[in-house]
Amino acid sequence: MTTDFVPWPDEFARYYRERGYWRDRTLGALLDDGARRWPSRTAVVDGDRRWSYAELNKKATRLACGLRARGIGHGDRVLVHLPNVAEFLSLAFALFRIGAVPVLALPAHRRTEIVHLTRLATPVAYVVASDLRDLAHAVPEIAHVFVVGEPGEFTALEDVSAEGEPGDGPGPCDIAVLLLSGGTTGPPKLIPRTHNDYEYNLRASAKLCGFNADTRYLAALPMAHNFPLACPGVLGTLWAGGTVVLCTGADPGTAFPLIEAERVTVTALVPPLALVWLDAAEKSTVDLSSLELLQAGGSRLKAEAARRVTSVLGCVLQQVYGMAEGLLNYTRIGDPDAIVNDTQGRPLCADDEVRIVTADDEPVPAGEVGELHVRGPYTIRGYYRATEHNAGAFTADGFYRSGDLVRRLPTGELVVEGRVKDVINRGGDKIPVEEVENLLLSHPAVYDVAIVGIPDDVMGERSCAYVIARGTPPSRKDLLAYLREHGVAAFKLPDRVRFVKSFPRTGLGKVDRKALSTLENRW
Ligand code: OOB
């Protein structure tokens, strides 16, 4: 039998409620509370626009009514494909209110990903920024197309609004949002996060990071991603009564002036961006003194870079090792330098059950490297509509097999040492190797292909495609153009293409990816 969603077993749900992790509140209520408690505070800044909590709430309510009037409601999926604009938030809360489920595509996604997500989630609506609205033609099965900005032949999201009350909302154990997986093999899977578990995720994170009404959070990374969305991110800031400052690009040229102008106190970056910021800050005259906390996560931050954060940016560093599937590890504010610089932190929750195991699922001896398995109050029990895949991705007793190789220090912190799965982590952007390989294989001049990650000082890893050509090898340009034509997100295009006559094989005859990855020197 195929089920959309795998719930937590009753005894776990009961325990998580008893412990106060699950409060049976919905994410829609979070904004109701904010609008009641501090209506006139600024909730979000987007360029010249500043919306108070009351305004954001009003926009979300009107949008919820407008969506309802168009027949969109409880359990319907809505594919959201927006950069960091204020409408992302009014839309997200409108959907939370009516129990429709946002499927969060990344701004970098293009046709391949949008088509894949549409097949998997069967959304009733696609909400897209005007510059990408033509992508709607690739998914004609989606009934409604709403555009933020100039709508062209479609409907402007602005016009989807109505007076009234949105009516009954979702239950706290319903799916609140479908996030994209970064850590699994093959094309992205969808991660069903419930109101209860995601509310805990953002609330506990906000408390751990000391978020409050004075927090001014810069959303530099795309907030469609779990990290800037809820760890504690934008939602954690709104929970705490702070202000979210939206940034459409994370480059220092865009972000630094905003930090100065808006007196930003905290932001989250992936390590390659943190390096760019450090270099730029050393030369910059922009006043970054308001910055109190810099979170770095998504891929491994080098200790040398970690050490520079405090001296160059004058703020506290926090390493965040998380996954959209749930588990979050944080270094704590006030931890000794050695912990903050050299580890990826420890679990958020006392009831995050982390096991570190061998390839046979046996616990490794203390301090040794093994695969991280996890179960807990905000870690999913299964991907969305993926019964077959779930059988391998989770253990029989409900632990998620993260595919990450980690070791645990005696003090409890985790250090990420690598991965057991075929995903290239290009500075936090996760490249599903199989997906890109399959596309390249459909090129007439490609006989076989294997894409591997090559260590790189800045990005952590870059991708190299080894290609066995059919006849005359095509040019690299040709192959990249082909991938682009197929609408692949730019971060997935191989950084390097090498033509070979054959692949090294393992004893079993499988392509030896390890051997391939040592063919190229470091970047
Ligand atoms: C975050 O989430 P995803 O779902 O894009 O990717 C998860 C994977 C992890 O399994 C791990 O392989 C890698 O990204 N990762 C890290 C890391 N943080 C994530 N590897 C080394 N060091 C780190 N600090 O990337 C994510 C979700 C929530 C918060 C932060 C990151």
UniProtKB/TrEMBL annotation:
Species: Amycolatopsis decaplanina DSM 44594
Keyword list, A-Z: Ligase
InterPro entries named among the record's database cross-references: AMP-bd_C, AMP-bd_C_sf, AMP-binding_CS, AMP-dep_synth/lig_dom, ATP-dep_AMP-bd_enzyme
Domain AMP-binding enzyme C-terminal: 435-510
Pfam families, sorted: AMP-binding (PF00501), AMP-binding_C (PF13193)
UniProt xrefs under CDD domains: 23DHB-AMP_lg
Keyword DNA-binding: no
SUPFAM superfamilies tied to this protein: Acetyl-CoA synthetase-like (SSF56801)
Name of the molecule in the record: 2,3-dihydroxybenzoate-amp ligase
Residue ranges occupied by any AMP-dependent synthetase/ligase domain in the UniProt entry: 32-384
Record-level Gene Ontology MF annotations: acid-thiol ligase activity
